[in-house]
Sequence to fold (241 residues):
Amino acid sequence: MRSVREVSASIHIHAFSPMEVKHASVNSGVTVEEVLKAFKETGLNSMPGTAAEILVDKVRRIICPHKIKVAEWMRIIKAAHRLGIPTSSTMMYGHVESERDKAIHIDILRRIQKSTGGFTEFVPLSFIHEKTNLYKTGLSRPGATGLEDVKVYAVSRLMLGDLIRNLQVSWVKLGVKFAQFCLNAGANDLGGTLMEENISRIAGSTSGEYLPPSEMERIIRDCGRIPAQRTTTYEIIKINA
Fold:
């Protein structure tokens, strides 16, 4: 971050998941709060709310047994919000979780947001199963169906309402055409163009990494929406009416 700040004082640094914050805390022998304070003082602007997967410990013991527990994820996220570091929020679904597990996850996010107001957006992430050990060993189902994807966006919008106003659909996970469809099922944000994407690609995604802004605008206009350019924290820069 110091190197970034030497180049630019204004570039937005969005980095370090709760898992990485915990790792830094353990390795450096200081508290999570001290790590977050040091990150903020060095130039951190916001954090990804990843490493969430499903916020139900019995599910996490199957799909990510070495990641932090639900209580730790919540504590780190709340600490970041208290220090004025906004975060995104995510949910990876379509593997071993139940409908109830998804509802519990979204409700946890809703309750945190009521308390802190620190989430900038919610990003449901449909599980790409094809090349994962979880699927190859028979532990998970073969990803979510299309109807399940639509239901996740619709129910997320109903549960989160205006608390988390921005609901992002990932064309990298769903493909461009289906991502466009989900913009009419509760989502209001199309993300995003990536410089490098490894997680979905290694798991078997074929949707790619790059989508030109002009194509994004065409997709958005075609489903009756007005494209707008935004910042990482969702301030509108330009409306392309």
The two ends are 36 Å apart (CA to CA).
